[in-house]
Amino acid sequence: YPSSVNLRLADVVVINKVDTASLDDINFVRENAVDHNPHATIIEAASPIQVADPSVIRGNRVLVIEDGPTLTHGGMKYGAGVIAARRFGAEELVDPRSYTVDSIAETYRRYPKIGTLLPAMGYGAEQIRDLQETVERSPCDAVVIGTPIDLGRLLTFSVPTTRVRYELQEIGLPNGR
Fold this sequence. Notes:
With 177 residues, the protein is of the alpha/beta class.
């Protein structure tokens, strides 16, 4: 319901990730946008990932930290960190589930389909403490940070880290012109 209201009131609709979505899915979204808001400007975009230091990933056992709410409430199975780890040749994605503590362990109990990555569920004192301890207990060679916030400012890492980010890249002209 809130999404529908936002779409109907928008001056601009951004259809993102057109570089990775199927043409059928892109057309479906575009048709819905036009049907519900024919006067909105439509911009197609991609969100290519950028990795601060790909050499941290290549050939290593990496622990990937992703944005927790994206995985739990957003229904995603992985994010930019996992994509980067695979693209830049990680030897292995370290499964943190058997090394989790307290609030992180509870997150896996509540959302068992999270999989082989570590969700950052928030940035309060307890959440950061539990994330820090889980990272320390995980047997990895490096950490890939795929969160919106730079965890290097909040956590201490004993192994090399690299940060993964998205940058919005407009494709073509608005409304296909």
